[in-house]
Amino acid sequence: MKIGITSVLVDDQEKAHQFYTDVLGFVTKEDAPVGDARWLTVTSPEGAEGVELLLEPDWNPDIQINGAPAAKVFKKTLVDAGIPWTSFGTDDIQKEYERLRERGVQFTMEPTQTGPVTTAIFDDTCGNLIMVAEI
């Protein structure tokens, strides 16, 4: 067994698609209509046949907590606590940090030694914090 697809909940699929491709540099793998949304995945250009990241809408009205879509409540709770939704890897965190800063990415944590790895955290502009770790 292996991981084929993982997801990140986004508040706007088109905005997320632009950020994850134009800013982060991922490439579109799948883009197909599914009801009111899209099956929209991106992958790393370094391993296009690897794990896909599904840019999944967070607005499903059928799953609610206290009258609000559950995904939005969950995401806000994570962001308010400073907890990243997921983590991406890089061979050189400082180089990646500088590349993303030049592209306008807002970091909530600069590269920091966190135990055996160096990590940084950025805002994906779609309601999530994302960690990048030197691996």
Q: Helicity level, as a percent range? A: 10-25%
Label the structural class.
alpha+beta
CATH superfamily: 2,3-Dihydroxybiphenyl 1,2-Dioxygenase, domain 1
What is the annotated CATH architecture? Roll
In the predicted model, the low-confidence regions spanning at least 5 consecutive residues are none
In short:
With 135 residues, the protein is α+β, with helices and mostly antiparallel strands.
Task: Give an overview of the whole structure.
By secondary structure, the protein is α+β, with helices and mostly antiparallel strands. The protein has helices at residues 13-23, 70-81, 93-102, and strands at residues 5-10, 27-34, 37-43, 52-57, 64-65, 68-69, 86-90, 107-114, 117-123, 129-134. The strands form 3 sheets. A 4-stranded mixed sheet has the order 1-4-3-2, covered by helices on one side. A 4-stranded mixed sheet has the order 7-10-9-8. The protein has a two-stranded antiparallel ribbon with strand order 5-6.
Helix and strand topology:
Blueprint: E1 5-10, H1 13-23, E2 27-34, E3 37-43, E4 52-57, E5 64-65, E6 68-69, H2 70-81, E7 86-90, H3 93-102, E8 107-114, E9 117-123, E10 129-134
Parallel strand pairs: 1-4, 7-10
Antiparallel strand pairs: 2-3, 3-4, 5-6, 8-9, 9-10
Which features characterize this protein?
135 residues, 2,3-Dihydroxybiphenyl 1,2-Dioxygenase, domain 1, 24% helix
